[in-house]
Amino acid sequence: MPQTSTLSILISTEQIRARTAEMARQIEADLAGEPVLLLGVLNGAVHFLSDLSREINSDSLLDFLQTSSYHGGKSSSGVVQIRKDLDINIEGKNVIIVEDIVDTGITLSHLRELLSTRKPKSLKVAALLSKKGSRKVHPEVEYIGFEIPNEFVVGYGLDYEDRFRNLPYIAILHEE
Length: 176
Ligand code: IMP
Fold this sequence. Notes:
Layout: E1 5-11, H1 13-31, E2 36-42, H2 46-55, E3 60-68, E4 81-84, E5 94-102, H3 106-116, E6 122-130, E7 143-147, E8 153-154, E9 170-175
Parallel strand pairs: 2-3, 2-5, 5-6, 6-7
Antiparallel strand pairs: 1-9, 3-4, 8-9
Helix pairs in contact: 1-2
Residues 41, 44, 69-70, 76, 99-108, 152-154, 158 line the site of inosinic acid (IMP).
């Protein structure tokens, strides 16, 4: 029998918009007028990076990198690979890694370690979502949009087997 899936909205479009604006104000205040380089982690952070970057009223650059550890499924393989590296040299820059979600923390911990070897002036992380209860490692996350329960979520960039990224809200995916 084919598996059916249902969605229940966890965070609405309006809640995402309002929280993103608050995060942008906090980031601007911390930058104190200095420029920033926003690094989006593809593909999941694409909508969040797009909205966050347009809310931040500071001189900013954008670049992207892509990692892979989920291989399209619901749990991390624990091995992080860089599929696409940055184009911009981050040495001496204020860098913010922009993530969709921090779950086990493995991806972010790997990224923080890798990028800090490239000598940025500062290195911080802005994650729209965090599942605090499922961390296996504990990288610092300076800006968190929402702490969520340990459920598999989709929408606003987050996928399950490449589906649901286009939803304008965050929903819990239930499978029957
Ligand atoms: P971590 O390495 O376990 O912290 O996972 C980070 C990456 O796993 C995120 O950038 C997402 O791409 C993916 N991920 C973790 N939890 C979820 C989820 O609930 N839905 C969709 N993707 C997720």
